[in-house]
Amino acid sequence: MQKKVETHHQHKESGETAPAAHSGFEGLGLSKPLLDAVREKGFATPTPIQEQTIPLSLAGRDVIGQAQTGTGKTAAFGLTILQKISPELPAVQAVILTPTRELAVQVSREIAELSKHSHAHVALLYGGQDIQPQIRALARGVQVVVGTPGRILDHLERRTLDTSHVAIAVLDEADRMLDMGFVDDVERILSTMPPAGKRQTMLFSATVPSEILSLARKHMHNPAIVKTSEEKLTLDAIEQFYIEADRNLKPKALAALFATEKPESAIVFCRTKRGADGVAHLLKGYGFNARAMHGNLTQNKREKVLSEFRAGGTDIMVATDVAGRGLDITGVTHVVNYDMPADSDTYVHRIGRTGRAGASGKAFTFATNLEEVRDLKSTAARTGSIITHLKVNLDAAPPFKRVEREYEERPRDARGSRGGRPGGFGGRPRYGGSGGRPQGRSGSGGGYGHSGGRPSGHSSQGSRGGPRRGGGFQRYSAGWEK
Asked: Is the dihedral of CA 199, 203, 208, 211 positive or negative?
């Protein structure tokens, strides 16, 4: 974070140029069709990111907006785009880049809803789907394109997408886009558009590390920095806990947690796709309505899982970081970090799925050794959070019954965004071992119990070496927020 503060001074702060506070959306200078759409969506007053960003962007400024998912940033850049483009011109005038297909779908849906009275046309471009309908949509003439970097590059290479008339470019969830290795693709896409100074660029990110500022220096013109995130990055409405559990006890501890908490809607984060599959399968064995969500599922299956979760047909969604990134799902009451987040930024992104739009939420993180507890302590200090120790009664776990495992076939021809890029479908089969059976092996991905794929309490003979590094919590007695 120190680097961010140092490079802040190379740009004008938003406070130097932002207008005074406005009275609702009417005071932001939006057209009547947009105001009508805003009212119909039930937006009463603008959020801080909207109130600070929209006047700057309508004035033509490049903007770096630092805000968490769920703060209204899609409407912040969407309303600006719809105000400034010309619907009568059948050319692409705005491009919005997102790191994942799910976020692209979400953003395009909201832009389409906001444009219902302004008659702008939106095209959604992402991999894992037949490209021909996308080509036909572009040929009919659209003003706004929302998509993932890989598929947008595909269209540029096919010359089915012309970005020479683009007046506004938006990088949404920019920090995660860089984390996923899309920086070269993003730069290639921006290079096909009019240069900075002749093109307005808006960049939105939950964090603004030095890599983001470096990208801004290359592709943005004197950007204003709008920072709505307070020093305390996590939302006050989220109660945060950590649970000590050795690896072979994690599945039963998770089941006991859910049996005790009885969440209305929960997201469980795992580090790997195989781990997400395994945890979802074990939760079903404990009687919970759980589904896995990750990049190895077909796009239709992913959309079905999301749709069922949003509608309440599924109580628990077990997801990887990539699949869960940027999803704006209302009503999530609980988030569980089954596998430790890679860093404090990922921690903030994960738990930010709950406690949204003024609602309260709970976040739980499993720690399997002393080193992970130290990592959590560092995260707590950095985010200004209180992460309280929670003891789980394993006896609260429901009885475990074996259920048949669901196997998902990968698309034969789909390459994801582009072959070999993050989020694609290429690679090894989802499950290792012979006969298509999961191995349940321990490793960096956290797996799904680290005990031969069997939950604790049913067979402990499959454990391969027990907890790594810290040696489990038998050796831990210092306590932290106990």
From this structure: negative
